[in-house]
Amino acid sequence: MSQPNQAAPVVVLETSMGEIRIELNPDKAPISSANFLEYVRSGHYDGTIFHRVISNFMIQGGGLSANMQEKRGGRPPIKNEADNGLSNDYGTLAMARTMVVDSATAQFFINVKDNSFLNHRDKSSQGYGYAVFGKVIAGMDVVEAIKKVPTTTRGGHENVPVEPVTILSARVAE
Questions:
Q1: Which of 12, 46, 97, 121 has a beta carbon 3.0–4.6 Å from 127's, enabling a disulfide?
Q2: Maximum Cα–Cα distance for the chain, whole Å?
Q3: Burial class of residue 95, CB neighbours in 10 A (0-12, 13-18, 19+)
Q4: What distance in Å separates the CA atoms of residue 135 and residue 86, rounded to the nearest whole number?
Q5: What is the radius of gyration, based on Cα positions, of the chain?
Q6: Cβ(113)–Cβ(90) under 8 Å?
Q7: Are 84 and 93 in contact (CB under 8 A)?
Q8: Is the whole-model pTM more than 0.90?
């Protein structure tokens, strides 16, 4: 992984499988980075799980508890910054959303391969893409281990780890 940018915030996700360090990119994704930091600082991610794990695609978390209940107390949806020039490449962090372009709140995903089909192509709802706002700078071995866990269907959700992979805490690195 590349060297961290000294001016960029780094978030440490302490998971039940190890530590993941993520460097945010507030220069190219100011709204997404600020939104993620607000969720980190409020403790929102503590106790949430990676609830969607697809080994040849991505690992998604940040919104559900181990009993598959949505964690409340969220912030309003944010503007999609997928047109910021950052790509959904291996090891990058992006905002999850619904089919509505500007619907991202707390959930995020880490790309476990290059997913260029998620990149911004145009301003249409089909082509807008998913906003990348950071990258893993340490702990890709943990991400690689998470992507390999056995999954099942639970509570109407597919690709849920059989044994919960929990975000024990999320904090801004000193």
A1: 121
A2: 42
A3: buried
A4: 10
A5: 15
A6: yes
A7: no
A8: yes
* Cα 134 to Cα 18: distance, rounded to the nearest angstrom: 19
Are the C-beta atoms of 21 and 5 separated by less than 8 Å? no
Task: Please give the chain's pLDDT, 174 residues, in tens.
Answer: 555 555 799 999 999 999 999 999 999 999 999 999 999 999 999 999 999 999 999 999 999 999 999 998 779 999 999 999 999 999 999 999 999 999 999 999 999 999 999 999 999 999 999 999 999 999 999 999 999 999 999 988 999 999 999 999 999 998
Q: Domains of the chain, with CATH numbers?
A: 10-172 (2.40.100.10)
Predicted pLDDT of residue 6: 56
Cβ-proximal residues to 130 (8 Å cutoff; 6+ apart), any chain? 80, 82, 88, 94, 95, 96, 97, 109, 118, 119
Buried b (16+ CB within 10 A) or exposed e, 44-53: bbeebbbbbb
Q: Identity (one letter) of the amino acid at 82?
A: A
DSSP string of 85-115, one letter each residue: S----TTEEEE---SSTT---S-EEEESS--
